[in-house]
Amino acid sequence: MRPRGFIEDWRPRQKSLDLLAKVEAIIAEYAMPLTIRQIFYRLVGRHGYDKTEQAYDNLGELLTKARRAQRISMEAIRDDGFVNHHPQCFARNRLRGSATKTLSGWHQYLDECPPDEAEIHAVSMACRTTVGSHR
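and the corresponding structure tokens:
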């Protein structure tokens, strides 16, 4: 079983340190939380990182350790969590109530964001909801 919590004495190999430097540059370039997959594809496109499941898994493991060692901020990497890919269907008379409830949840969330991040989150949520509802 993997230990939980923060890692106080983490000593990654030089190869891992080199990869972390590239990841930190990507995070700094975008100046917003990114998913591991977004970081992975920037590494593939810009740095020739292997585009394999094993390479993706290795990156995820490295980033988990780097976050637990507080080398990379927990907030720098976004976890979108579970997305329901089943379309939601509503009777015509229930559609307005459901849409209003969803939008009020978004408004409450966006009210808590700094103004310069609110638009990005709104677009991200709208795209994720739109794409997810058509799969």
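(Above: one complete record from the training split.) The first helix runs from residue 14 to 30.
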